[in-house]
Amino acid sequence: MKEQLGVLLATVEKELLNVGFDQAPTSLYKPAEYLLNIGGKRLRPIVTLLGCGVFTNPLKAMPQALAVEVFHNFTLMHDDIMDDAPLRRGQETVHEKWNLNTAILSGDAMLVKSYQLLAQCEATILPELLSVFSETALQVCEGQQHDMDFETRSEVTEAEYIGMIQQKTSVLLGCAIKMGALVGGASADDAAKLYQFGLLLGTSFQIKDDLLDCFGDPEKVGKQVGGDIVSNKKTLLLIQALKTAKGDDAATLNAWINKKQFDPKEKVDAVKATYRNLEIEDFANTKMNFYFKRALKNLDDVSATPEQKKTLYAFADWLMKRDS
Fold first, then answer.
1. Are 26 and 64 in contact (CB under 8 A)?
2. How many Å apart are CA 94 and CA 104, to the nearest integer?
3. CATH fold for the domain made of 41-68+122-321
4. Can you give the residue ranges of every domain in the chain?
């Protein structure tokens, strides 16, 4: 499985160099090329190819795989602007390296380019590809707005949080695998089941990210853990802690949330200790496994042989066992 994924990843990286950002005006296209070259896990294009590979040669869906990755990076460019983030994967963000207007316009160009790549398919499936891609793009915007709205709300429910991460993150994984399946010739029923597989796997993936941010090994994660705690980000962990904390635990949690000046390490240590008292890690792991099992059930129901689906099973297993 690792060898196959390695080949697909290398092919994606090579093809990303040829998507059309090496042209004039360089002031428009160079920032997009720069962001793509910073790197990333490339999960979305890989899962697009794997979805196609269940039914035919996975490389048939390469244009759609590239479309998903270019779109994803467009969202990252604009997210960085909204967050005023100085770094992306350890490198200067586009608006810092160039300027705000350049980042906005270059991001817009990436969005248009993603649609051009998407349309490189058989005419018979183009309407459905456009439909699922456009609906997903709008859902990503909705999820981002919900995430921003949560910052100013004192209470967020678990259901609201799951809905937000599904819109902001999971739907793009579902869209990616569904588009790959459609290009590969999947039936409408199988494409729908693979979409649910991707959506639920993406939900589990995001909960795993929340866990790693809090309880991960800094050397393996590649950054200091506890960033969500420092910023009072309303993750599933914090939502459950606020819901269940009583007495001293509630007082400690609320005191740290409301502090304006603090030592970040001291806050992370104190909040993590409260999480341990409340068994938050166990709770989040249970939720992560719940969505993971539901994802696998949808993959089970796809009308392809176990041999045809084995790489997707292996990919899902790898994704949830990762420690970074």
1. no
2. 9
3. Farnesyl Diphosphate Synthase (1.10.600)
4. 41-68+122-321
